[in-house]
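User: Can you predict the 3D structure for this chain?
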Amino acid sequence: MPADWDIWAVSDWVTKPGEWRNEVMEEGPEELSTGSRKRERKKRRQARETGFKCSALLCSEPRPRCCRWYHIVAMVVYAVLILNKAGGLIFQRDFNPGLQKLTSNDYLILAGTFHGVHAITSQISPTNETGASGLEVLESENFVMRCFQTLTGTKFLVFAEPRQPNLDVVVRRVYELYSDYVMKNPFYQIEMPIRSEGFERHLSAYIKPHQ
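Assistant: Here is the predicted structure, written as structure tokens:
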């Protein structure tokens, strides 16, 4: 490879925790147009927004032949809850067995309390073009909670460690799995508890390997 060629990392999606992606695109200066550089910068920006980090800040070991390596950040998710539009708990799953367990009654109280707080915050929040959305993020010293509410009022809550990045990406992925494996089930009754093996299996496959 000529010494004056640039090496650019291909910002592909990484699905395994701890996996390094070192696919490179080798282009000479004469082939690398301004449009190509802009597209590559866009790829890197999108990669950072979806959970990638540059290894130059994470790893002291030099990486030969490549100046751009990306590493997917391990997720530490504690629990996932889904609430219907009335505030009823229709799904709950823990992903960290080492933490103190809550009873079913505790989760029901948590769901009802959050539903009330969310309704209050949506009333007192300044409105914008899309309307007030209510409480979306709750942070503490021990955890962070991210809420995503659909247009039909269903709420998805994800509890994770305080330093968990891109939690909005995680909660939206949970919503996508819900749409694919729950809402497309012709036997599922809206607003009722979720009992879908496919949804639980794919949810565990998405979160547990990254723990």
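The chain has four helices and ten strands. Residues 95 and 190 are 25 Å apart (CA to CA).
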